[in-house]
Design the sequence.
């Protein structure tokens, strides 16, 4: 019997290993072949597909907001990652990729959209068909089922998606990033479909967000231009009416305006009239804005605590009716308006990530409510201040009229007509220039909306890669087999020494005396693992 504290020589170790080599071979072969067979025939094979995307941030020409400059790359990556990993994008991609019928229908819609964009097909309402396909019918039902009843599968799909981006690029340069999707089954086809459709769903969701942010600017600019065209029509009617009433004197009036040949009292009177024209223009503008404000702002707003008693929707609708030119005149109002626009953009971003009842959305709604009421209060204060300005301008105009009346008794009718003509012409020219600026802002807003709808800023850099069916991502057969071989080999060695430790076979007379405790006179023959007691006393 072997003693537990007895050291083993190299010869003894070799004897033990060769004595149990069959058992060791069986253990190693079983573990190695079993692992290889499990990886080849039993384990579910997972494949990886990748697709590259390219994104170029356009210059922000939204007339309601100002460009904040270049953002850092990590901010951009986080924004795109939040869109890609949102429940809506992932659920749509998973549902369409797994269903052959939905997948085929989506590819047909996508190809039709691409052909129309390239000019190879007649323009149809394919954008509406795509929206209906994603938000109605089987896709919407399966997305709802996936998010409510197949949450474990959805979490597995989310964990299989990874966003990879190179570092070092600066914002405003071309950005590239890669989507990695790991999916089992169908020799890698499901992984390729998932990556391709996930990229499509991301780009579609990106267009939706961009369109949501750009559409309000177009609507606001349209309303402002419609309101200002009425003011331009009034200035034009007054100008044309004067020309029709005095057709023979227009040339003289134009010459007097350009030559400046007045002197003495005439020059002084001309300055007074020029000042009067400026005051009247300012008064007309302020009065028009003030009247518009009084017509769109409820009287309750001007009462103490009136804004706090209004509903949030009433506050927002009142603010929306306020002319933009009035909002741009006050620095504090401009800053609050910018902050509200940022909050709206932030809310649109969070709504794609959180439920509307979540704490983040609730906090943001409260902040929107507070800032909207602050803005309406500031507008009301500015409107009251504008009313005082209109009254002061009116008094100045009245004083000028008295002064003009006292100094124009000796003036000819031509000079009086000249002042009237100059005022009408100046007002008409100024109105035309301002309308041209507003129309330019509207065109830029529509250009932003067009870019958002047609997604000229984002596209696929490469098609989704097709995984090699013979080399899945998991399981790694060669690695796992080698690990099993090494582990089983070490285990078989340990098992050989373990069996030898409990082996009670007596190999000599000395072992027999130690085991029996009495002297042994004869030899001990080995027969299997039993003692032959012949010759023992």
Sequence:
């Amino acid at each position: 019997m072997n003693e537990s504290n007895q050291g083993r020589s190299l010869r003894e170790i070799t004897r033990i290993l060769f004595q149990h080599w069959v058992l060791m071979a069986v253990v190693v072969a079983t573990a190695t072949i079993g692992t290889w067979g499990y990886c080849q025939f039993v384990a579910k094979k997972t494949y990886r597909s990748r697709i590259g995307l390219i994104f170029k941030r356009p210059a922000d020409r939204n007339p309601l907001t100002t460009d904040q400059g270049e953002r850092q790359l990590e901010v951009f990556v986080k924004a795109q990652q939040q869109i890609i990993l949102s429940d809506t994008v992932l659920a749509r991609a998973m549902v369409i990729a797994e269903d052959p019928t939905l997948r085929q229908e989506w590819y047909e819609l996508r190809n039709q959209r691409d052909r129309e964009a390239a000019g190879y097909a007649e323009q149809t309402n394919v954008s509406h068909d795509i929206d209906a396909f994603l938000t109605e019918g089987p896709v919407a039902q399966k997305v709802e089922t996936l998010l409510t009843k197949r949450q474990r599968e959805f979490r597995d799909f989310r964990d299989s998606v990874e966003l990879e981006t190179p570092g070092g690029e600066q914002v405003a340069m071309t950005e590239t990033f890669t989507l990695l999707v790991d999916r089992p089954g169908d020799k890698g086809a499901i992984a390729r479909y998932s990556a391709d459709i996930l990229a499509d769903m991301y780009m579609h969701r990106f267009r939706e967000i961009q369109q949501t942010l750009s559409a309000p600017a177009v609507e606001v600019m349209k309303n402002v231009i419609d309101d200002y065209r009425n003011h331009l029509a009034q200035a034009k009617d007054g100008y044309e009416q004067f020309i029709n009433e005095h057709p023979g004197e227009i040339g003289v009036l134009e010459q007097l305006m350009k030559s400046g040949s007045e002197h003495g009292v005439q020059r002084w009177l001309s300055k007074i009239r020029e000042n009067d024209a400026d005051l009247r223009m300012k008064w007309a503008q302020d009065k028009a804005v003030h009247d518009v404000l009084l017509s769109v702002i409820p009287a309750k707003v001007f009462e103490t605590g009136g804004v706090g008693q209004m509903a949030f929707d009433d506050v927002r609708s009142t603010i929306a009716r306020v002319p933009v030119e009035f909002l741009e005149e006050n620095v504090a109002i401009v800053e609050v308006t910018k902050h509200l626009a940022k909050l709206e953009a932030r809310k649109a971003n969070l709504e794609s990530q959180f439920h509307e009842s979540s704490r983040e959305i609730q906090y943001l709604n409260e902040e929107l409510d507070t800032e909207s009421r602050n803005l309406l209060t500031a507008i009301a204060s500015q409107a009251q201040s504008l009313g005082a300005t209109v009254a002061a301008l009116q008094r100045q105009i009245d004083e000028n009229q008295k002064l003009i009346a006292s100094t124009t008794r000796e003036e000819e009718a031509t000079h009086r007509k000249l002042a009237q003509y100059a005022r009408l012409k100046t007002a008409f020219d100024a109105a035309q220039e301002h309308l041209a600026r507003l129309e330019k802002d509207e065109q830029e807003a529509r250009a932003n909306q067009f870019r958002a709808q047609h997604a000229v800023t984002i596209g696929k850099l490469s098609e989704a890669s097709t995984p090699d069916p013979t080399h899945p991502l998991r399981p790694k057969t060669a690695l796992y087999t080698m690990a099993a071989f090494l582990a089983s080999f070490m285990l078989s060695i340990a098992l050989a020494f373990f069996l030898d430790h409990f082996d009670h076979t007596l190999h000599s007379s000395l072992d027999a005396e130690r085991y029996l405790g009495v002297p042994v006179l004869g030899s001990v023959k080995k027969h299997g693992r039993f003692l032959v007691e012949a010759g023992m006393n």
Summary: The chain has a mean pLDDT of 74. Strands lie at 46-55, 161-164, 175-184, 458-460, 526-527, 530-531. The two ends are 20 Å apart (CA to CA).
